[in-house]
Amino acid sequence: MSDPDKTAVIIVAAGRGTRAGGDEPKQWRELGGRTVLSRSVAAFAGYRRIILALDPDDMARGLAEFRGKVTLIGGGATRAMSVRNALESLASSGMTRVLIHDGARPLVSPALIDRVAAALDHAPAAAPALTVTDALWTGAGGRVTGTAPRDGLFRAQTPQGFHFPAILDAHRAHAGDAADDVEIALAAGLDVAIVDGEEENMKITWPADFARAERMLKDRMDIRTGNGFDVHAFTEGDHVMLCGVKVPHGRGLLGHSDADVGMHALTDAIYGALAEGDIGRHFPPSDPQWKGAASHIFLSHAAALARDKGYALSNADVTLICERPKIGPHAIDMAAELARITGVEPDRISVKATTSERLGFTGREEGIAALATVTLVRT
Ligand code: MG
Fold first, then answer.
1. pTM for this structure?
2. What percent of the chain lies above the pLDDT cut of 90?
3. Is residue 277 scored above 70 in pLDDT?
4. Separation of 205 CA from ligand 1 center, angstroms?
5. Of the residues 12, 274, 287, 296, which has the maximum number of CB atoms within 10 A of its CB?
6. How far, in Å, from the CA of 262 to the mean position of ligand 1?
7. Using an 8 Å Cβ cutoff, are 197 and 115 in contact?
8. How remote is the CA of residue 237 from the centroid of ligand 1, in Å?
């Protein structure tokens, strides 16, 4: 199974990108208010080990933009050497897989990344590609000199995924540069699976590509809001699970799963933003396998569904409503746990609490209620 914690990401951005024009390398130019490179890096949110190969002249800039988020490494004289440096830096990291991506492909979708990662369950290497649909010619001096068959031809994209030891060995055995890492994998005899690429996953190369990428970004602009509400009644027990944190209490919460009312509200908010129903649709209470289930399974599923549909969790705000236990001392841990499960930075998640002034069922301490609001942004 693909595991983001065992899969490293290498983003290659050490080239000078002179063909794209402009005053600075294309990876540092802005696209829709962010640098091309920051978009390429952000596409791999959820992966904890990201290595960014930069030209040594760009290190200060890289530190300013990415400090604490990625590991920077000096690129080599060629693309292959940059990748090799990055692979060697991971040699004793325990990573089992690696995804290698061009920094100049900022519009790569989460779904495409997931397809490559999943294909590595069945092949030592996998890469996205598009079939060639235009007729192919040869030409010289402004004249067509012949035609070429397009059958069996593909346009290669990235990220290209590999079992880590296999691609490290392949790079060590390879002399000279290569157009991409599939070329190096093939030279080492690796079997490379082809997965569906996407037109939007263009490599910014020429000046006109910036305008095209800007148009694609505008088409994507899509912001969604969802809300969730949940209630669980108190029962006998010595703790409650709230937002993934075990809080000692003189009572427990009654429920089919672990009754984590805060996590359920957040999960339903994400499903709601996606118009994907609620927890009950995806994890029917009638199914005994979810009895006593840890609620992070539900939240992980909702977060993955959002990612697969091309949305990032921009922020979430969870309010717990109870007289007791006191939430304040645990709120930061709760937000951190929700952030960990959803794969976002902790400052995008808020957990707060209120009482209902001793009114109603929460005021009488018959149960705990929670509500959550989320904003999802198409990436
Ligand atoms: Mg519930």
1. 0.66
2. 81
3. yes
4. 50
5. 12
6. 8
7. no
8. 17
Residue 229 confidence (pLDDT): 98
The CA distances from residue 123 to 10, 105, 127, 187, in Å, are: 19, 24, 10, 16
Residue 322 has pLDDT above 90, yes or no: yes
Distance between start and end Cα atoms, the chain: 25
- Tell how far the Cα of 228 is from the centroid of ligand 1, in angstroms: 10
DSSP-derived letter for residue 218 is: H
- Please give the distance, rounded to the nearest whole angstrom, from the Cα atom of residue 286 to the centre of ligand 1: 14
Q: Which helix (H) or strand (E) holds 50?
A: strand 49-54
Q: Give 20's pLDDT tier (boundaries 50, 70, 90).
A: low
pLDDT tens per residue, range 63-118: 999 988 899 999 999 999 999 999 999 999 999 999 999 999 999 998 999 999 99
CA 265 to centroid of ligand 1, rounded, Å: 7
Looking at 23-27, 149-153, 237-241, which range is the least confident one? Answer: 23-27
Residue type, 162: F
What are 358's two structure tokens? Answer: 């001793």
pLDDT of residue 19: 66
How do residues 35-55 score in pLDDT, each as one tens digit?
999 999 989 988 989 999 999
**Ligand 1 center to 20 CA (angstroms):** 52
Distance CA 212, CA 207 (A): 9
Listed as own residue / partner, the contacts of 175-184 with beta carbons closer than 8 Å and 24 or more positions apart are 176/78, 176/80, 177/78, 177/79, 177/80, 177/81, 178/79, 178/80, 179/79, 180/79, 180/127, 180/156, 181/83, 181/100, 182/125, 182/127, 182/156, 184/80
Which residues have C-beta within 8 Å of that of residue 239, sequence separation ≥ 6? Answer: 246, 247, 248, 249, 252
Residues, the chain, total? 379
- Cα of 252 vs centre of ligand 1, distance in Å, is 14
- Structural domains present in the chain: 4-219 (3.90.550.10), 223-378 (3.30.1330.50)
Cα(281)–Cα(222) distance, rounded to whole angstroms?
A: 24
What pLDDT shows up at residue 34? 83
- Contact assessment for residue 298 and residue 279, using Cβ atoms and an 8 Å cutoff: yes
pLDDT at 124: 97
**Residues whose CB is under 5 A from ligand 1 (ion)?**
230, 264
Please state the rounded mean pLDDT for residues 234-250.
97
- Coil, strand or helix: which one is 331? helix
